[in-house]
């Protein structure tokens, strides 16, 4: 295996064009994920994490488009591939699972058929072979009695079971990268843990890299080796996930870490208020000059209000975009 | 479970009509065309002549039985053509959007603006009378409602999670339309199709009545009505029985359509549970 990363994003800008003007919904996005690595993208709703994922699989649709930058998957630039070549990557080498297992499965088709379709579509198997492979795929995601369950329709399955089926579909063709967009948000906490565990184990067994997208810093840090925190369309900090909890460097990340309730802490016991980040996320059409976090930042100075910080390498590894980082 | 009267009655009537059409050679007493006998002309309904005879002494019962073949063929085949056209145009327009959607919309609006029977008349005038031209004329003029429904369904379905998931999983457009969109919009399409069959049966009757349908002497319900109109006062059975056949078939199809809608519509289904 070469040392080349599986996916490499360089200075990506995603434009939102509403017909009158063009604004950057995300910009300066750079990261790389190695084969078999786990990488997390964390941020609030609307910070640009989901559209970054869509850009990776070449599925940005108007009014969104890639304005600048480069995405290289396995050495090939995704933007320059033909539509057919992109389609061949999707589901086959890059797969994705979604937030809503309730709606992400076709209600009128048995789940086994939906899994089998992946083998027929990407691997050229016959339907008979694909059906057998679908049973095996269901067994691999620990669905009990898979040879019976293949004939079930989505509404006959619980939320957790459906998410298992989604994972089976996503991993059917043995992709190199699995993008998980809020994969457990709609599930019970206990089921959530099982699903995460399952996803992590299966990907580790098969050497599939994971790009996990979530607003839940704790969950992402638990799954991923490295975490990037996004704020208002920019990556503000990228660190190893242990470091980001111990020594968050960007004021926004510090705010996120401080706002997590911890068992046994004073806040959890009701003796003090849980910390919050003051203010609200700026609208996409109205990003502040300079550092986009400056209106909410306790440490903001004049330079923060005029000059956008560049990404600084940290001694401990990782990088941060802040003029005053620790 | 509560028995659905409209579904049962409609289904029975339609099944009966189909059965009569299929079994016509065994059900008919005489040949509908050849067994003319002026000795028996204009007999009123009796044990021998169940529905009476016409002015050429042909058995009305046998002619009504054979007429079912024409009416149902026209109803089913022309509506199938309509459904295929309507779904193909509406589904692709709703899914793709853009200029294709504009084109299909304009076409649908034009079709809705022209009374479909007049349009069918014009096509028949070009193609000449006969069963094939009848199928083509009625099959090309009644797809606009199906198209509208298919387009509206595609518009709402394409934003469903599973359709987006299919895109992400590398499905091509055609595969998405066939496996994700079509099966999920089949309910309303089937309902519209059933109702459309009823109106196609009526259109066939109307066109045959105007002399543009199936060529005489072969019987169709519409042409029988047309032939009977001069004798409606002297021999009412000539118009009553083919009229009744049309009425019952169309009623059956409409009830069936209603019943299917009740079953297939998720809203009425959730109301039930």
UniProtKB/TrEMBL annotation, chain A:
Residues 7-257 form the ABC transporter domain. Keywords: ATP-binding, Cell membrane, Membrane, Nucleotide-binding, Transport. Gene3D superfamilies: P-loop containing nucleotide triphosphate hydrolases. It comes from the Bacteria. One of its GO terms (cellular component) is plasma membrane. It is a peripheral membrane protein. Its main location: membrane. The keyword ATP-binding applies. Pfam families: ABC_tran, oligo_HPY. One of its GO terms (molecular function) is ATP hydrolysis activity. CDD domains: ABC_NikE_OppD_transporters. InterPro entries: AAA+_ATPase (IPR003593), ABC_Ni/Peptide_Import (IPR050388), ABC_transporter-like_ATP-bd (IPR003439), ABC_transporter-like_CS (IPR017871), Oligopep_ABC_C (IPR013563), P-loop_NTPase (IPR027417). One of its GO terms (biological process) is peptide transport. It is found in: Cell inner membrane. Transmembrane segments: none annotated. Involved in beta-(1-->2)glucan export. Transmembrane domains (TMD) form a pore in the inner membrane and the ATP-binding domain (NBD) is responsible for energy generation. Belongs to the ABC transporter superfamily. This is Peptide ABC transporter ATP-binding protein. It comes from Bradyrhizobium manausense.
TrEMBL record, chain B:
SUPFAM superfamilies: MetI-like. GO terms for cellular component: plasma membrane. Keywords: Cell membrane, Membrane, Transmembrane, Transmembrane helix, Transport. GO terms for biological process: transmembrane transport. InterPro entries: BP-dependent_transpt_permease (IPR050366), MetI-like (IPR000515), MetI-like_sf (IPR035906). Its main location: membrane. It holds the Pfam family BPD_transp_1. It is found in: Cell membrane. The chain crosses the membrane at residues 185-214, 234-256. Residues 68-257 form the ABC transmembrane type-1 domain. CDD domains: TM_PBP2 (cd06261). It is a multi-pass membrane protein. Belongs to the binding-protein-dependent transport system permease family. This is Peptide ABC transporter permease.
């Amino acid at each position: 295996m070469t040392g080349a990363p599986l996916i490499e994003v360089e200075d990506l800008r995603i434009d939102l064009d509403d017909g009158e003007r063009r604004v950057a919904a995300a910009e300066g996005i750079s990261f790389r994920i190695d084969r078999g690595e786990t990488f997390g993208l964390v941020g609030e709703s609307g910070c640009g994490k989901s559209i970054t994922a869509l850009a990776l699989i070449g599925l940005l649709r108007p009014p969104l488009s890639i304005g600048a930058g480069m995405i290289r998957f396995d050495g090939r630039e995704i933007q320059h591939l033909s539509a057919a070549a992109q389609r061949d990557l999707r589901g086959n080498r890059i797969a994705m699972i979604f937030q809503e297992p309730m709606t992400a499965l076709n209600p009128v088709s048995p789940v086994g058929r939906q899994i089998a379709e992946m083998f027929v579509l990407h691997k050229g198997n016959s339907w008979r072979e694909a059906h057998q492979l679908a049973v095996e795929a269901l067994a691999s995601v620990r669905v009990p009695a898979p040879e019976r369950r293949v004939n079930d329709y989505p509404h006959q399955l619980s939320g957790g079971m459906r998410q298992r089926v989604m994972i089976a579909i996503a991993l059917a063709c043995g992709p190199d990268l699995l993008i998980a967009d809020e994969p457990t948000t709609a599930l019970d906490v206990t089921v959530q843990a099982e699903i995460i565990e399952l996803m992590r184990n299966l990907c580790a067994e098969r050497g599939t890299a994971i790009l996990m997208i979530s607003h839940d810093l704790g969950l992402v840090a638990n799954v991923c080796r490295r975490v990037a925190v996004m704020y208002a369309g920019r990556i503000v900090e990228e660190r190893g996930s242990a470091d980001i909890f111990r020594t968050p460097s960007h004021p926004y990340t510090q705010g996120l870490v401080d706002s997590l309730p911890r068992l046994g802490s004073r806040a959890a016991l009701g003796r003090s208020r849980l910390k919050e980040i003051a203010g609200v996320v700026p609208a996409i059409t109205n990003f502040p000059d300079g550092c986009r976090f400056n209106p909410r930042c306790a440490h903001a100075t004049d330079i923060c209000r005029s000059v956008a910080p560049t990404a600084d390498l940290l001694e401990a590894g990782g990088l941060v975009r802040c003029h005053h980082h620790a | 479970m509560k028995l659905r009267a409209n579904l049962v009655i409609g289904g029975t009537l339609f099944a009966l009509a189909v059965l009569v059409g299929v079994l016509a050679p065994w059900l008919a007493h005489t040949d509908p065309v050849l067994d003319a006998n002026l000795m028996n002309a204009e007999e009123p309904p009796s044990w021998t002549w169940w529905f009476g005879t016409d002015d050429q002494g042909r058995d009305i019962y046998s002619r009504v039985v054979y007429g079912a073949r024409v009416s149902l063929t026209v109803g089913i085949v022309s509506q199938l053509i309509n459904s295929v056209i309507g779904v193909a145009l509406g589904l692709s327009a709703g899914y793709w959007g853009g200029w294709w959607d504009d084109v299909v919309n304009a076409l649908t609006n034009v079709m809705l603006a022209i009374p479909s029977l007049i349009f069918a008349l014009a096509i028949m005038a070009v193609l000449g009378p006969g069963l094939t031209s009848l199928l083509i004329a009625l099959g090309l003029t009644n797809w606009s409602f199906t198209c509208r429904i298919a387009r509206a369904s595609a518009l709402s379905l394409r934003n469903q999670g599973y359709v987006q998931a299919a895109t992400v999983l590398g499905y091509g457009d055609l595969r998405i339309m066939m496996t994700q969109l079509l099966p999920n919009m089949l309910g309303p399409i089937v309902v519209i199709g059933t109702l459309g069959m009823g109106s196609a049966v009526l259109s066939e009757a109307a066109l045959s009545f105007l002399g543009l349908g199936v060529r005489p002497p072969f019987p169709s319900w519409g042409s029988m009505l047309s032939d009977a109109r001069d004798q409606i006062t002297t021999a009412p059975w000539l118009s009553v029985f083919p009229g009744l056949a049309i009425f019952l078939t169309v009623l059956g199809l409409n009830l069936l359509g209603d019943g299917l809608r009740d079953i297939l519509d998720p809203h009425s289904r959730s109301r039930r549970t």
